[in-house]
Amino acid sequence: MATSRFGDPKQTLYLVDISSFIFRAFFAIRSLSNKKGEPTNAVYGVATMMARLVEEAKPEFLTIVYDSKEPSFRKEVYPEYKANRSAPPDDLLPQFDRIEQLINCLEISSYRQSGFEADDIIATLAIKWCAENPKHRVVLVTGDKDLMQLVNDRVVLWDTMANKVYGPADVEEKFGVKPLQIRDYLGLVGDSSDNIPGVPSIGPKSAVDLLKAYGDVAGILAAAKNGDIAGKKGEVLKTHEKAALLSVELATLKMDIPVEVDLKKMAYQFHVTEDCGTLLKELDFHSLHERWMGKEASNAANAASGDVKGDGADSTLSSTAGTGLNASASFPSASAAREPGERATVTVTIIPTKPDSERFRTIRTEKEFEELLTGIENAGEFGFDIETTSLNPREAKLVGIAICYDREFGCYIPLQHRTHPAQGSFDLSGSGSRSSAAKLSDMGQLGAPLSGTEGDEASPGVRDPSQLPQNYVLERLTPYLENPKYGKIGQNLKYDFGVLAEMGIKPKGILADTMVADYVLDPEGRHNLEALALKYCDYSVMTYEDVCGKGKDQTCFDLVPIELATRYSGEDAWIAVRLWDLMKPKLEAQKLMSVFTEIDLPLVMILSEMERQGVEIDTEWLAQLSREFDTELKAIELKIQEFTKKPINLNSPKQLAQLLFEDLKLPPQGKTKTGFSTDAKVLEALADLHEIPKLLMEYREISKLKGTYVDPLPELKDPKTGRIHASFNQAVAATGRLSSSDPNLQNIPIRSKRGQKIRKAFIPSRGNVLVSADYSQIELRLLAHMSGDPELVNSFRTEEDVHKRTASEIFGITPDQVDDRQRGIAKAINFGLMYGKSAFGLSQELKIPRKEAQEVIDKYFQRYRAVKIFLDQQIQEAREKGWTATLAGRKRTLHDINAKNPAMRSIAERMAMNTPIQGTAADLMKIAMIRLDEALKKNLKLGAKLLIQVHDEVVLECPEKNVPEVQKLIVDAMEGAMQLNVPLKVNASTGSNWMDL
Fold first, then answer.
1. How far is CA 445 from the centre of its chain?
2. What is the pLDDT of residue 296?
3. What is the pTM of this model?
4. DSSP three-state, residue 56
5. Which contacts qualify for 302-311: CB closer than 8 Å, 24 or more apart?
6. Cα dihedral sign, 165-169-174-175
7. 918, 934, 960: which is the final residue of a domain?
8. Is residue 439 helix, strand or coil?
9. Which end of the chain is more exposed for a tag (fewer CB within 10 A), N or C?
10. Is residue 133 a contact partner of residue 26, using CB atoms and an 8 Å limit?
11. By the 8 A CB rule, do 482 and 505 touch?
12. How far is CA 144 from CA 435, 847, 980, in A?
């Protein structure tokens, strides 16, 4: 008999709030359309969400519920009900009918009742179903909190997007009140999404306290009248009694509307009609058509032959769900190859259904450990993950190691877990569902997070003696880690290998980093392990918070019980291997494997070493600079007070607005929710009218530099190394560029003199100097190469001033006649047009009339015709393919390139023009870094270390005597990174600090 996570499908009714599906699908999947330009993202999302629902639930009673097309009766009660909601987006409106058409084609029953919302219909059907079928259950499929008031021992709410099921206890945990009190809770706090007013000043905490004390709103109001609720709260309740009662009425679901439970109508069995196949073709859902119609044919063949399987195989769509299934599946993903106009798919490898005791094994004995090593030898590759006490690789203490050499299970080697007197037992004999994993907070207080080091007497607990000796494990495992013959598979291996490097272990042979692989496949998505497991496997992994708790109750990993750590860490190594099995064919199919293996993957170890190396900072200089900035800030404050004749808080937008627009009578430039805007654009527009806006701009610049860099930088200095160790992130920017954090080196301003002073704090270590090298006008050179424009190509080949040449072309003068203003305009055009800058944008930047800006743009494209053709081609190709690519083959999906919304489409068009150039520049820098790393390793005697990568620049340090050789290595590596039809030019310099380079 088919079963699901909700029990026997023959006794369960699934009521689907389709509006919840539609809006979530629309916003989850960016703009998508068929070849005719018809928007289809919501339709596709609903189709795949229904597929997942049917696969996991295996429903035999299923009904879709629609909102009424007429206004709700609540509008008559309160005309402002939902008045704050804007109209559905233009791209969504035509999809409502298509979605209803799809539901009908799938022969799923549906309900709609004039004047009633879907919530009321669902409530009535749920109540009647339970009354007429005493042994049956109801599953409300929605994310709508209003429906939680229906939850009881026979009615649950299933939020499929969060994969969370709410029973009575879950509702109470979420809101602090029982399901039957939800309407009263909303009556007090209000509901902004439905414009339910509630009672002013009554927030969630107060509402919970009041409902616990008095039961419902009627009881609360009675208590307020009797004086039992004193003070301001009691007065507010008495004053707003009508609002409270109205709000409860609006939040209360109708459970007696005229709809009938029809078992025959609600009965469901998966069936794809010919009309459905035709519809899928009209929508250009080719992969869905192939899978669904193929499934239908398979079902028909099985029925004809009498071969009907018992585990629900006769009623499943192609999808997966939960923690384990036994068939192949497909799900939408921006990363996979697709036909024009169709959302991509990811074919999911199904997770085997095994108990945790078989899937995750604890390695406690030498025999078990030696068997693990033999398994690694035989497999030649393995999943790898470590558990530590800190996210900082230089502070982290190793707690355990996870290995997966067999795709059926993961192993965990505990090394430094500690026992604690309060630590109880942990039962892992359950079903293995991630959503039901116990948290440490449920097991009793395990003590404060570990702050000491190994052997520290102040640390709570003692090392669990059942663990293998760490020295023995590392001594035996290190040869496999350092041997590139054995491929390592993991998630964010940069961290793991950074920790091992601190221990003197130098891992080699990364086969796959799933975070980086997914970034190559889908640069705009989320790349954490939890997201990837859901995306590719529809599998929910145990989270760190599941294991260690959160907030002030979070404990350190070495206090986690070994059995729970095995479940968590063994799973991480195991799921990484599973993910790689899925990602590898996708990379190959999309011709992205070379980008992954030749560019992004080799960079993992380079960035890990750069982070470990760090860079020295001059804290004395920063302290001096902080004092200078303080003096400047005070001087500006005093100068402004000369105008105001009274103290003013320059960080208060309200006071600034009064000063600028009331006291000084300057013209307002725009409004915010709280008053007139005083943002940077406004101050810039007012700067020519009065001195104070200029002073405010200066004040804000200094304040930001001081608060963001000057004062925080010394705090980032590592106490052990005396250096700053920034994190370099390669899975963030959608163009492929690297970013950095702690500190954000990319954002240190260099155009202003004050910003440059911050760079002066970055210095070489004793006995060394800094060496910098950066590409000259790299994006323009790439534009010349990719467009093939003869004028632009010739400018770079003859090494003339390209901006002066451009100015001479568009102004019709000789290069020696070009003045600074004309060169500035040409420079803005050269860099702006590849970013899709409009005449308006150019006029704003250059402070010239819009008409003049359009004239110079027209002249530019008249002269550089090939550039115009190239940029237009990028947009057209992106419209046809749905993505754009770099010279190296890196792809970026442009979800909105065919959007009906002009603003969204315009943004995507600018990305289509710029990404091939900016993305290629990013690839070029990465290739150069790989070449440079190889050259430095071959010349270790030079003592050069790569420290920083920012924009088109790299910064190294080396002994001063070796500067000439090091500079040659750098220039050769960077200029030889790509072969273009224009020369790559690299400028190298040296200095005693970053500012002087």
1. 33
2. 55
3. 0.70
4. helix
5. 310/1, 310/2, 311/2
6. positive
7. 918
8. coil
9. N
10. no
11. yes
12. 20, 50, 56
Residue 401 lies in a domain: yes
The strand pair at 381-388 and 398-406 is best described as antiparallel
Yes or no: say if 809 and 863 are a contact pair by the CB < 8 Å rule.
yes
Residue 316 has what pLDDT?
A: 28
Retrieve residue 830's tokens: 């050269």
Residues with Cβ within 8 Å of residue 117, at least 6 apart in sequence: 67, 68, 72, 74
- Do 674 and 718 lie in one domain? The reply is yes
User: Which of 562, 543, 569, 547 is CA-nearest to residue 417?
Assistant: 562
Q: Give whole-number Cα distances, 386 to 14, 96, 367, 397, 563, in Å.
A: 42, 48, 21, 10, 16
CATH of the domain at 496: 3.30.420.10
Collect contacts of 99-104 with beta carbons under 8 A, ≥24 apart. 99/18, 99/22, 99/42, 99/43, 99/46, 100/66, 101/279, 102/43, 102/46, 102/47, 102/276, 102/279, 103/18, 103/64
Of residues 535, 562, 534, the one with CA closest to residue 547: 562
CA–CA distance, 389 with 459 (Å, rounded to integer): 12
Give how many domains the chain has, as a whole number. Answer: 4
Residues 138 and 44 in one domain: yes
Cis peptide before 332 (omega within 30 of 0): no
Residue ranges, the chain, pLDDT below 50: 1, 297-353, 421-459
CA atoms within 13 A on the CB side of 481: 25
Same domain, 649 and 502: no
Say whether both 604 and 632 belong to one domain.
no
Question: Would you call 739 helix, strand, or coil by DSSP?
Answer: strand
Q: In terms of DSSP H, where are the helices of 652-777?
A: 653-657, 680-686, 691-705, 753-759
Question: Do 157 and 219 belong to one domain?
Answer: yes
CATH number of the CATH domain containing 800: 1.10.150.20
Question: Is residue 561, in this structure, part of any structural domain at all?
Answer: yes
Q: What share of the chain is helix, strand, coil (3-state, %, to 5)?
A: 50, 15, 35
Q: Catalogue the long-range contacts made by 727-732 (C-beta closer than 8 Å, 24 or more residues apart).
A: 727/611, 728/607, 728/610, 728/611, 728/949, 730/516, 730/519, 730/600, 730/603, 730/604, 730/607, 731/515, 731/516, 731/518, 731/519, 731/523, 731/527
- Give the helix ranges, DSSP H, for 454-528: 470-482, 493-502, 514-521
Q: Tell me which residue of 843, 891, 348 sits closest to 591, measured CA to CA.
A: 891
**What CATH number has the domain bearing residue 242?**
3.40.50.1010
Q: Which of 210, 242, 265 is the last residue of a domain?
A: 265
Which residues, in sequence order, are CB contacts of 29 under 8 Å at separation 6+? 41, 42, 44, 45, 332, 343, 895
Q: How many degrees, rounded to 5, is the angle at CA 863 between CA 859 and CA 869?
A: 100
- 451 assigned to some structural domain: yes
pLDDT of residue 373: 97
- Sequence-distant (≥ 6) Cβ neighbours of residue 66 within 8 angstroms: 18, 19, 100, 110, 111, 112, 118
Crossing angle, helix 241-251 and helix 182-189, to 10 degrees? 140
Three-state SS at 342? coil
Q: Which of 78, 72, 65, 69 is nearest to 115 (CA)?
A: 72
In a domain, residue 366? The reply is yes
CATH number, domain containing residue 667: 1.20.1060.10
pLDDT of residue 521: 95
Residues 176 and 37 in one domain: yes
Which residue type occupies 444? G
Chain-centre distance for alpha carbon 759: 30
Enclosing domain of residue 681? 628-724
Residues for the chain: how many in total?
997
DSSP states along 18-40: HHHHHHHHHHHS---B-TT--B-
Residues 456, 489 within the same domain:
yes
Which of 177, 125, 129 minimizes the C-alpha distance to 149? 177
Strands 155-159 and 164-166 turn out to be: antiparallel
* Rounded CA separation 461/98 (Å): 62
560 and 634 co-located in one domain: no
605 close to 497: Cβ distance less than 8 angstroms: yes
Between the CA of residue 875 and those of 444, 866, 883, 893, 920, what are the distances in Å? 59, 14, 10, 12, 17
Is there a contact between 146 and 251 (Cβ–Cβ < 8 Å)? yes
